[in-house]
Specification:
Radius of gyration of chain A: 17 Å
Oligomer: heterodimer
Strand order of the largest sheet of chain B: 3-4-9-6-8-7
Number of domains of chain A: 1
Helix content of chain A: 25-40%
Number of domains of chain B: 2
Largest sheet of chain B: 6 strands, mixed, barrel
Shape of chain A: globular
Largest sheet of chain A: 5 strands, antiparallel
Shape of chain B: elongated
Order of helices and strands of chain A: EEEEHEEHEHHHEHEE
Strand content of chain A: 15-25%
CATH architecture of chain A: 3-Layer(aba) Sandwich
Strand content of chain B: 15-25%
Order of helices and strands of chain B: HHEHEHEEHEEHEEEHHHEEHEHHHH
Largest interface: A-B, 35 and 26 residues
CATH topology of chain A: Rossmann fold
Chain lengths: 208, 428
Amino acid sequence: MFQVSQLQYSYPKGPSFQFPDLELKEAEHLLILGASGVGKTTLLHLIGGLRIPGQGQISIQGTCINTLPQGKLDKFRGRNLGIVFQRPHFVEALTALENLLLVQKLSGLATEKKQAIQVLNNLGIEALAHKKPYRLSQGEQQRLSIAMAVINRPKLLLADEPTSSLDDHNSEQVIDLLMKEAEQNSANLIIITHDQRVKSRFTNTITL
Amino acid sequence: MNGIRLSWRNLVARPLGTALSLLLLLLGVGLITLVLHLQNHLQQQMTNNLAGIDLVVGAKGSPLQLILSSVLHIDNPTGNIALAEAEKIGRNPFVKKAVPLSFGDNYQGYRIVGTTLEYPAIYEAQLADGKWWEQPMEACIGSLVAERLHLKIGDHFHGNHGLDEHGEGHEEHSYRVVGIIGPTQSVVDQLILTATESVWEVHEHEEAPHHHDGENHHDEHHHDETEEHHYEAEAQRKELPHHHEDEDREITALLIQFRNPMGAIQLPRMINENTSMQAALPAYEINRLMHLLGFGIRSFQWLSAIILLVSGISVFISLFTALRERRFEIALMRTYGASKGQVFRLVLYEGIFLAAIGFTLGSLIARIGLWAVSLWLKEDFGQGMLSAAPIAEEYILFGLTLLVGALAALIPAIQALRVDISETLGQA
């Protein structure tokens, strides 16, 4: 249940982008391919409500997010969206598990330690629960950032170049994990990438 | 994982910056608290000791010295005055109460003061044990004297000449402790009180052996005279063969309470102009003294304020630099639903947290300092322990410290609030 129409964005002193209309039914996945500089990350940030579009509409689960006031948008993002960024970021002062609990807390949901450990378990990093994120390897960090994206069972899971810095094996695994997590919550999964290795895994693909 | 806990974790995650800020904070708060307490104690002590004494009459000399010696009992007297002359002043219509003081002897460093029962009454002193003195050579001792010298009712002791422990003894005359005075938080706690007649008796009878000693001793007394004025009278007495006469009776000072405020205008001038004595207003002299001391206290307060300011800057720098590295996690938290207000508060809490911990540590250090000063005061001045109970100014200081912490965190907090999620996370 995701829809984008007539989306446009212009940077104040930079390029302007026009994006194609998109529509996904429940649990549908989409791969958006494109070379650098075509506005892939901009599109993902617009969909994720991190940037407000100049024109057009973005509707997630029936809510038009581009007209929400800032505070409500923050809460909506916390409840309904999971975003895996190109480079994983964490709250460095907290352990892996505490980062997950923080994400639960920020969304306004109750913090459930059991569920957080379950998610870590699903992603195969349960043993790292009490480690600080900067002690983890790159692949482990990527898994942890997926854990943070899915902990609140979002209806829309976004991933920005999730595989670009990983080898073939890890890249394959990350895509598997994202798909598995999305299917568990019957969520829409949108991956934006220039990584051609990923292409074969998706039926629904567009190129910017 | 709520905001307050996260702020705490962020502080712990950069121990060096946090430690430096805390060190400066505790130094600033500690110094200010210590100075506030000492100043408070000093003022309290002064007020207690001044009690209801409006005017002090004594031998001519420095008025401050007269007050220090006769009210606070920390300096030597300016000399003696004739009892007859003092009594004349006591009969003045402006005078409500006139209390004579005679001193010049000590027992193990504690002054023996000859006076009337009106003197302990000024300080509303109550007996803890025994009775008030009724005849010469009976003594009532202050609570600190009793505690430190382990004197009990019925004990005997000899006074020593002079006001420090090393004077020659008055071996022939022993005082008997008849009463122990309860704590008054005033100078009375450190005094040995007796009848004025006791002091006369000790010194009159002493004349005999002095005469036997002849010239030698005489010289010694002349020598003393230049150093300690209060020997003057005694030395004079020795030169006159017809002592023991009533008109020769002397006292050291006369404490006066006015019947009405007009006394403050009329009496001092009358005494200073028409008699060989001087009159000093304790309130005025103490104010003058506090003003002189005030300079030292103010310098200290400025120094502490500057340290507090520097600690504020340290908190600011620590948070500011930390936030430059933390802007990614701020953006991340915003992505996962944190509002602008939440991230603003997160940083603000850190500043306030630092300030609160710094204040607590500073208060603690100040109390250790207070304890150390107490020990020293007790050793050197026989004073009681200083109270560690919080004083009103500390609550203000607490608020002020929190304000410093909050102000120092304000700019970093605004920075956090302004983090553009998309821009920050788009930086690959």
